[in-house]
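#dry-run=false #mode=assembly
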Amino acid sequence: QWHSAVMKIFEAAKAPIRWEERNVTAIKGPGGRWMIPPDAKESMDRNKIGLKGPLKTPIAAGHPSMNLLLRKTFDLYANVRPCISIEGYKTPYTNVDLVTIRENTEGEYSGIEHVIVEGVVQSIKLITEDASRRIAEYAFEYARNNQRSSVTAVHKANIMRMSDGLFLRKCREVAEGYKDIKFTEMYLDTVCLNMVQDPTQFDVLVMPNLYGDILSDLCAGLIGGLGVTPSGNIGANGVAIFESVHGTAPDIAGLDMANPTALLLSAVMMLRHMGLHDYGNKIQTACFDTIRDKKVLTKDLGGNSKCSEFTADICRRIQDLD
Amino acid sequence: IVGLGWFGMQTVTLIPGDGIGPEISSAVMKIFEAAKAPIRWEERNVTAIKGPGGRWMIPPDAKESMDRNKIGLKGPLKTPIAAGHPSMNLLLRKTFDLYANVRPCISIEGYKTPYTNVDLVTIRENTEGEYSGIEHVIVEGVVQSIKLITEDASRRIAEYAFEYARNNQRSSVTAVHKANIMRMSDGLFLRKCREVAEGYKDIKFTEMYLDTVCLNMVQDPTQFDVLVMPNLYGDILSDLCAGLIGGLGVTPSGNIGANGVAIFESVHGTAPDIAGLDMANPTALLLSAVMMLRHMGLHDYGNKIQTACFDTIRDKKVLTKDLGGNSKCSEFTADICRRIQDLD
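#status=ok
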């Protein structure tokens, strides 16, 4: 229901987007390796831009995580989450407006672990110059393209001198080429301490994998959770996949109860990424106005309206805005 | 087992520290005197010195005092500038095998934050994990950092967490981890927590991914009770939770070591800009001293002092600058002392 809501809203906005639906359920290729279906890959490689709803976690043994497969197939190296307070959806915070940019290919999630001796395990964190430079470049480009004023590198280089030290050095080097953007550095623990006291002090935050995993969820919590948080994954060769990061909610599936906000805001991110800012702004405004008005909220937002009613209200507002 | 000395007094090693350390320590001593707490203070300095063989160590008289007294209270220490000079906190941690960092976070009525009714405890494994310090350059441009998780350290911290929960009437312990990603290391940590939980059927045991904890913590921290976790996660969560209740200026902290050693400390900085000006807020050190009293079984004294401290803050008449007032540290302290005497 989420994607049909988004398509209806895009239609109401007359956004110049044509949708090509594909399924990414993993299949076994020749050689026995899991892969995404060839027609899905072909479509993404051709279109470059994708919008994705939640995927269920596979139960079958050996079946890999779909998200991991997508990440590897398209080298989705940057996870980007803009977190903006939604007026009308009350949380302990107002005026949150920050963006977390997480390096998504290496770091603590290398998957390399060993038993050294019985009862002693080591887990390897890998930081490379290339991945660090690439994510830093993306962060500064993003800041410039979205009129953000500062980029903060989040790290623990006081403790992990070599690995986080390398990450930090690359950020500093890239910053040199973006004198129009203010560059700062902050320890991860200090960021968390300050984030919950005053999130308005933050703008764009760039960091390695694990810190990004934590901070992106922490920041989603500040604005109301995964049901209202957009997300984008930037890959090599111009590929970008935007997605909602909440679950599949099987208990309400098919009952016209879902909240399409997260997927819709991800689609707005997508429009902006494509340079279609006017359409993105119009749709976001309509969405926020509907929520602020509180008349047709879905259950998770505190109302008892249907997904279709929520969607129709947004469509109406878009048409009124024209 | 703590032996009672002369007149039932117990001797505690006091490390005032640097900057505002001495004045907040003297505030704590005044308040303890007003409460007639059976504590005798033995002051020591822990500034590192070079021992025979050239290794940095804490001064022998400080070590001897801690080994004898077992219990210590410590103010903030300044970060050493001199090259080669080690972190004092790291030296203390290694000297006394301070394996558990414990931070109770309770909302302070009168000191407004976006949250009310926070009442949780973070228990952080403080010897291994991501802070092993083992790093290598693999090839140019590729660095690896080793995270070490051992069965022994995981079991020890889990046992401490469940004992703490039982001794402090807490109903649940939650292990915080990322074992879905770090299957072996966090998996080992989690297994040890589960094993220890078996011996504490009176305490509810749950498990939660670190990212889910953070997502939920900022939406509703009241769902959490005792949280136990490896080093890095503890570093992050303990500071996150301190932020929920107002920051490091009001957050107590305790470090539990082997052989019965325990050092309680404020975790804010030395605030050199206000040192000596009677402007400091002694709350963090005082609440750490309250933790210390409870650790020693002196709950009545701890409760009395905490109540007086919270009442003074709630009343808002003599707040220090960082709490939103413009009173002096000595006035804030005197108000707490007066309330304690009234409570008797």
